[in-house]
């Protein structure tokens, strides 16, 4: 057996009536776990190696507490001790290797590794995750299997309560699981679990960040970061702008935005951007769009498909307001982020 494992988490699970897992909350998921901690898991629980998910009882947690203390892993030892008081099932999910997930506990661990900034988007295998998750109502009374919701709503009403339903989805908003340091989010519902919000990110109310996607540094997000899209340090997404994902007919280009870019309000990109690029407000650049490349005197030097410019730096894209043609020029004015706007204190 290898000396280190990919990740593990001690979590609290929620189940439907049939005992299937709806979600698992890991307060402190761990990445690249050292041998000492791995030995503590092996000695304290029924974990015998590989990728495995177990429900722990109080004696497991007692042993885990003692052995993790001996292993010098104080944070996880204290968590194991704390979880003895949980009234909900306590789960140990161990991922010896980063394989495609096989159960909801593994999916939730991986999504939380990203949101805890332990793993960057695209750096863990999430293949097939949607098929493993149960469609769930995320409510004021916790997660409820959507097939059980009507009955629960009736029961609650009979007791004089209203169950507030926040969303019906395979997984919920990120901030109910982790609020990373140094961020602001105008509307929690707009950031999905599995988003990666770097220190210095502001997501305003119109902004949206999907799972396995997000920011790598300072960023003002007033547009949509689709699944898989990663935005570099110092780049801003203007109000209502769109970054094309690969999930529904968006093609197979995984969109990345480099550093210090500005995607204008209501603009959109179906190609990647390098560093210091600007897309004019309102312009949607799809990969196949024909783009006139202009020289310093605004003369057309060539016409190319936008995908040929994907990922290149120092470009300014605009739609010529007189001719309607999409044009690309050298961007001479790299944007400077407004310091006050990006302060998170
Ligand atoms: C594309 C953009 C960056 C251009 O701004 P700019 O570099 O300041 O350029 P200017 O508006 O000063 O225009 C420079 C010249 O280009 C011309 N021009 C600008 N946009 C043009 C267009 N779409 N078609 C034809 N000419 C255009 C101007 O008329 C001007 O011509 P001149 O030199 O003859 O006077 C800007 O229009 C834009 O869309 N910014 C995005 C802002 C935004 O959405 N922020 C997010 C808020 S939430």
UniProtKB/TrEMBL annotation:
Its main location: cytoplasm. It is found in: Cytoplasm. The active site is at residue 222. GO terms for cellular component: cytoplasm. Residues 133-173 form the 2,3,4,5-tetrahydropyridine-2,6-dicarboxylate N-succinyltransferase middle domain. Pathway: Amino-acid biosynthesis; L-lysine biosynthesis via DAP pathway; LL-2,6-diaminopimelate from (S)-tetrahydrodipicolinate (succinylase route): step 1/3. It catalyses: (S)-2,3,4,5-tetrahydrodipicolinate + succinyl-CoA + H2O = (S)-2-succinylamino-6-oxoheptanedioate + CoA. Catalyzes the conversion of the cyclic tetrahydrodipicolinate (THDP) into the acyclic N-succinyl-L-2-amino-6-oxopimelate using succinyl-CoA. Belongs to the type 2 tetrahydrodipicolinate N-succinyltransferase family. This is 2,3,4,5-tetrahydropyridine-2,6-dicarboxylate N-succinyltransferase.
